[in-house]
Specification:
- There is one protein chain.
- By secondary structure, this protein is mainly beta.
- It has a single domain (5-104), classed as Immunoglobulins (Immunoglobulin-like, Sandwich), CATH 2.60.40.
- It is built from 1 helix and 7 strands, in the order E-E-E-E-E-E-E-H.
- It has one helix at residues 94-104, and strands at residues 8-14, 26-30, 36-41, 47-51, 57-62, 70-73, 82-85.
- A hairpin with a 5-residue loop joins strand 2 (26-30) and strand 3.
- The relative contact order is 0.20.
Amino acid sequence: MTHGTKDLWLFRIVHQESGKPAQGVPVTVLDESGNPAGYWVSDPDGTVAIPRREGARLKLRVGLRNEEPIELNTAGLSNGPTDLAAPSWVPLNAPAAAERAEREHVVTAAPRAAEPHEVPGHVLYFQRLAMFADP
């Protein structure tokens, strides 16, 4: 079943500094008690489509559980995407990071090649203990 745009709220998660889309940011809809009622992750263009719900307020958490929830007035949400700020811990994508480094004149060292090494395997031992009653 496909949803029309009138059945969805569109949000665009953007980086706080650059305003560029943030990919892979978790967005949780919370019920009146603050419990999770739905979970989505932003697309490569930062878009999250959440099915519309009844009620005058919409409580969202952008990011992980340690982020503060935000409340939005549903009457104020437009049919187009509404921008929401990504948490500060969300990394910039590679082009945005390069632009930022260039803007700040930061000299970065070239990444080291991965050193080849063998990861040791894990050995697990299981024991079964039996106890017998005295005769």
